[in-house]
Design a protein that fits this description.
Family: Belongs to the cytochrome b560 family.
Protein name: Succinate dehydrogenase cytochrome b556 subunit
Number of helices: 5
Largest sheet: none
Organism: Candidatus Chryseopegocella kryptomonas
Order of helices and strands: HHHHH
Cofactor: heme
Number of strands: 0
Helix content: over 70%
Shape: extended
Radius of gyration: 20 Å
InterPro entries: SdhC_prok, SQR/QFR_C/D, Succ_DH_cytb556, SuccDH_FuR_B_TM-su
Low-confidence stretches: none
Strand content: under 5%
Amino acid sequence: MKVAKTGEGYFKLVASYKKETGGWAWIIHRISGLALTAYIYVHIYALSTLTKGKEAFDAEMALFQKPLFKVLEWLLFAFVLAHTLNGIRIVLVDFGKGSFYHKKAFAYLMIIGIIAFLVMGYFIFSHEIHQAFAGLL
């Protein structure tokens, strides 16, 4: 009998998981949770420049205003949004007869999430959008 490596067995399990609404919700929740955990460490590391003085911190903050970091910030919002909305779905499923409408709840919450994601994208990139339209006029 061949024994699978720990990581290999886990990924085979995830790959074999039935990917209906609940399966996708489970995968999204795990991926967003891992991404948010990783972000916490990056955030703490970024704040460590506060110990190096105002100039170092200001230089880092200027770096975070570049378009790449704005896109990453928008992606971070997507992870927060997905994790939060799916958490709400889980709470709804846990109360009463939520398992009977969890597919509808997932669909509605994802629609709300997509709309919120697009609105946040407008807010994050509004300065660039206004500059682009100003250049056209």
